[in-house]
Input
Amino acid sequence: MQVGIDMGTVSGGQPAKLDIEELLATRLLVQGNSGSGKSHLLRRLLEQSAQWVQQIIIDPEGDFVTLSDKYGHLVVDGERSDAELIGIANRIRQHRVSCVLTLEGLDVEQQMRAAGIFLNGLFDADREFWYPVLVVVDEAQMFAPSVGGDVSEDARKLSLGAMTNLMCRGRKRGLAGVIATQRLAKLAKNVAAEASNFLMGRTFLDIDMARAADLLGMDRRQAEMFRDLKRGNFVALGPALSRRPLPIVIGDVETSARSSSPKLMPLPNAPQDVEDLIFTPDPEEFTRPLTRRVTPAPRPTTDILAELSRATPVMSEEVMPSRPSAPEITPEAREEKMAAVLSEILDDPQAAYRTDAVLYQEFLVRSRMRRVGGPPMPMGEFRRRVAVTRAGVDDETAASEGWQTALSLSMRVSDDLQGVFLLMAKAALRNEPCPSDLRIARAYGTHSARRARRLLGYFEEQGLVVVHTDFSGKRIVAFPDLEAETQPGDANGSDDDLTDGRSAAE
Output
């Protein structure tokens, strides 16, 4: 059965027809820079052919999930196990259900793995289920890159092999590949070469224009025309489209993507307290769960420095003459050296405004310079000790039961807030005046007094403290679990009397 679907118009206003039956046998390649209308073209093709052929869309950005509302496409989330993806792919072919595999929210390597596994599941379906299927892959250069990128070699081979099977061997299994790419130069040649139909949109780079002209059988001097194509205008060639290069204007679509091109709009009036608005976090941010990727992130510099501190490369005696090993030091001497390094770092007035990661790197470097042997201090312990040091607790208070309780309570807040919490707890245990907003802000590593007040509000919301004032309006912070509270203190006072949080104890 021959079915010609309407893709738009050609010059003269005549309808541009695409032969679906021929397309199933000869495959299609679409190229165009971002904003040229590739996704619009694919949506037009899918809408016009939805009633005639089963469709499977590999959708890296989640743009095509809206097809489910009008055309009944099943939306499959790519964040599944390998076995689940293979099973779903087999059942989709068995029951001839159109679907959208959405990979939105996954990183590039996860997208490549999920798409490769799903395509291989379609390819490996039993022979009795080899019904004709239109397999549309948007942003195909991601899944069939011409060169290796930042992803692992296993993921690249898996994805590239699946795309090669789709375009080279899929026809006998009823799989007709329709691939769209921003640049032909980024797409693997053995994948692009298997398409016999082409729709070439706007592109600017010479290498892409030359390849597009070659594929369409045009003179290279005519390649400049691809720069002048408007959005939604393409040049078509192929047995399912036209035997000669034919300009086509893609028609309208009935559905729309969830994302759209940004539109200009005026900026809002800048608020008066814009600095506090941006740099002061909401209390909810401290309790909001962090979304973590499954794939391992690049190793932090602090981890690399820690590893370098942990061991020295072993060299043979022929390469390097033997030298006396560093003298071993007692745990007490090692602890004394580490405390001296930590104190030296925190004595710097600017240390209060540096991140823990920067201070930790400096601590590791200075420890190596001081010949502090043994394994490096873990980052968690370092943060803990910095918080305690900044609180300025003396030996007597540190040995008290109340301080041990305060340390336990501080574990209920995030690492960056422990220094502030312990500063307040120390003032309560020693019956000292409540620190000012500027002192609290300094302990947090900021100059914003407003942020300090928000931190106290957060502690109060967590049930850790109770903030109130005396008759003169001075602030008092009480700790119910410690059965202690600070003396009244001026919230608007300076922090000169507690520089870096340790002078009171020293």
The mean pLDDT is 80. The two ends are 92 Å apart (CA to CA). The CA atoms of residues 5 and 98 lie 18 Å apart.
